[in-house]
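#structure-requests
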Amino acid sequence: MIMGSFIILDESKLIFVSFEKGCGGHSIARTLCSLPNVYWYSNKNNGIHPWNIASAKTSDIRQRRVAPKHFDREMENGDRLPPMYDYIQDYINDIDWYLRAIFYPAIEKAQRQTSKMLVFPTHLTTFQLRQYFGTSACLNVLYDPLKASKRYITTVSKFPAYVKFNGIVPKDNEYLKWLESISTIKPKFTVADVWAMKNHNTLYSKKYEEEYYNEISLQMDDRLAIRKGAERDSTVCTIHQDNIDWKKVKTYLNSL
């Protein structure tokens, strides 16, 4: 249990899929949501069932145009759960404040709506998850860094980057205002454009392709080393993106 300021969060009812961008975390999460004791964020935009991947063709979720297995965390009553901290850290640079003021209260409310486990794809490492979510179930996803880097370029880099996080991020937020300035140049700018603006103060173009790929490749190598270090943690279930041992995952979840 996570307790404090009248918040009682049942960490045993949370499953975190810890993965790097472009490494299939949402696909793994959809499979987990097929289990009878795991909640699925069912609606027309995500798909009524977690295996309704073809629903991406009619979905309003922009990321699904690039990665069809992506989904948003919207409860049956319409409540949209806040993102994990890694998705919002550029806007809010205080993880402790964010979790206690925004995330924990929203999850506690969601847990009052269902007795099933809630799944969250996240790019936080299992070390970070253990620090803030105690004994919650954590899947640690390993990957082939070459394949992961290429998939990042073909999917993640093309994701829409102008995300306002209405209701969480104030309109005068410094990072949000910076994104707004980019939108005046290119309304539908991407993750790659944000990278180029940070590094070259201009929008992304083909001339940055090699530099961008090399940077992502280096990050994938570094992050993989961290993830391999978590293999020694018996409270974490480490799997490989290319060969998922679902029997191992099921045994792990049943042991909690």
